[in-house]
């Protein structure tokens, strides 16, 4: 896509600090890191949302993310823990509409928190939700 910043990076029309790449995936430093070592992993093919992505590509995205996490933990960059963050859709906080997995090194003192209200569902409500999701999984092309 012409107006996609990540596609411009993949095409070589915008600068990036590449951590890793192959024919399908690119891992790079983010322009606005939350911590030192904050990496984005993207598919090289423009994919606006997870629903547009092939399962194999999604698996490879997370595989590269896992390898980047291992490298961060082995490096001198502080990484007592690692968060993966992927926002899919505007309501989830997606700002760049090209799938991207954040690999975020964490420390006990970094003050980054994912906070919000928690629901207090009973077992019947959880069983109902599980049934709704299971029905969709079993009755669609998403079946395992």
From TrEMBL:
**What are this entry's molecular-function GO terms?**
methyltransferase activity
Query: Does Transferase show up as a keyword for this record?
Result: yes
Organism of derivation: Haloferax chudinovii
PROSITE patterns recorded: HIT_1, HIT_2
The protein depicted here goes by the name HIT family protein
Q: What are the BP-aspect GO terms? A: methylation
- This protein's UniProt keywords: Methyltransferase, Transferase
Motif Histidine triad motif, residue range(s) on this chain: 98-102
The record places domain HIT at: 5-113
Its Enzyme Commission number(s) read 2.1.1.-
Q: What does the record give as the organism's lineage?
A: Archaea, Methanobacteriati, Methanobacteriota, Stenosarchaea group, Halobacteria
Q: Which residues form the active site?
A: 100 (tele-amp-histidine intermediate)
